[in-house]
């Protein structure tokens, strides 16, 4: 019996897309990504990062492929060595008023506007072309292909996680520090016993059902 063929090694993100786009637009390129589109509670966050190709932190990868400790260590390195970085949020109220897609675009705009250096173009994870303050190039699976998008994914994730840990102190009993507002058994049980709190997304079906019961 033949042994199964070994799986090909996973490719890690590089600066190839940034280099190509920068040569085409003739200016700085940032990577943009979000965190928190799916949770039942809390804001959505986004980050924009312009990396220095001559001073790249080692180990940047899709935030989902990293441990929390590794993300936090890389967050420090990215902020210290990037040409510029910015983080933006869209609140629960904005999510409920605009819908999650448009609220995500708002958070991305705020992240780009927070950059100390204005980019000419942005590489954005996914296939939706958000209206941002610069040209947009979408990249499906971009957090696994582009170092700038991967760096943005790390900053967006660590910023939102930190905020949700703070929310756990403000609204104890829901377990926000652990699940960060996502669907989890402890979160569902807390909603059944305590009902929604001010940072729950009222337009999300499970929350709306509780409010209308």
In short:
The protein has 213 residues and is α/β, with parallel strands linked by helices. It is built from eight helices and five strands, in the order H-E-E-H-E-H-H-E-E-H-H-H-H.
Structure notes:
- The protein has 213 residues and is of the alpha/beta class.
- It has one domain: Nucleotidyltransferase, domain 5 (2-Layer Sandwich).
- The protein is 43% helix and 15% strand.
- The chain has a 5-stranded mixed sheet.
- A hairpin with an 8-residue loop joins strand 1 and strand 2.
- The radius of gyration is 18 Å and the shape is globular.
- The model has no long low-confidence stretch (mean pLDDT 94).
How are the SSEs ordered, and which strands pair?
Elements: H1 16-25, E1 29-35, E2 44-50, H2 68-81, E3 84-90, H3 92-98, H4 100-113, E4 121-125, E5 135-139, H5 147-170, H6 176-179, H7 185-194, H8 205-212
Parallel strand pairs: 1-4, 4-5
Antiparallel strand pairs: 1-2, 2-3
What is the mean pLDDT?
94
Number of domains: 1
- CATH topology, by name, is Nucleotidyltransferase, domain 5
Query: Cα-atom Rg, whole angstroms?
Result: 18 Å
CATH architect. name: 2-Layer Sandwich
Q: Work out the strand percent.
A: 5-15%
CATH class: Alpha Beta
- Order of adjacent strands in the largest pleated sheet: 3-2-1-4-5
Question: Would you list the SSEs in sequence order as H and E?
Answer: HEEHEHHEEHHHH
Count of helical regions:
8
Structural class: alpha/beta
